[in-house]
Predict the structure.
Amino acid sequence: MRIGVHASIAGSLANAIAEAHQLGCEAVQIFSRNPRGWASRPLSKQDVNDFIAARERTGIAPVVVHGVYLINLASAEAETRQLSVSAFRDELRRAAALEADYVVIHPGSAKQDSAEQAIARCIAGIKTAARGLQLKGLRILIENTAGQGGQIGRTFEQLAAILNGLDELPVGCCLDTAHLYAAGYDIATPTGFKHTMASISASIGWERIYLIHANDTRIALGGAVDRHWHIGQGNIGCAGFRRLVRHPALKQLPFILETPRHTREDDHKNMTTLRRLTQAP
């Protein structure tokens, strides 16, 4: 198992690799741009070369780019959808230039429309954004959601429907543990965990899962709110994460932490806890 964190790009993109290396990460996730606005600064040749050189020097892999928060490919509003498609196309270009392995995107929100309508818009938006691009081995990963605000991707069936609609593209799934629990999948108890794993196998399929976002949560089961917490200190607990990191279909996947961070020590503690849970008692 390769464990990493979402690292800051403050100062430069290459700084994220340096930060992850100092923390002892084997994998890393970044934003390639400001995550809270539509506009982005173009990548310079120096940005790209420095980032790739830092990655090669440290051996960190996979490198994951997370899409900006504003993107809503499922939006019923034409302007928002157009901005989202344009922003996601930019994300794909940037991630490919940086030779990233994965780009993670939330599928979006249905709001007043049906999930089926929103799923169709999401599929169309991703196809439009990727049209004509050379992805250079980059894979698009659809992340499951907590379900708040009419989000699609809350259920495995919805995720499978999106992936099935994109079978001509290199796609897969990123599973977020806090989102799973908030969406009503009980991965904290032995019985609930077994049922959840069986549901994944029957819907998405293990071969389409490429990445785990490892986050605990203090939100109640089925609470449909996206709130992350420290590993083992929330409702999933150490026992739940121990089952996750030791599951035969998951233990070879990269685990990226998106836990609360006030200092680097928070990241270090969460990674230490997760690594300890992979080991025999």
Remarks:
- The chain has nine helices and eight strands.
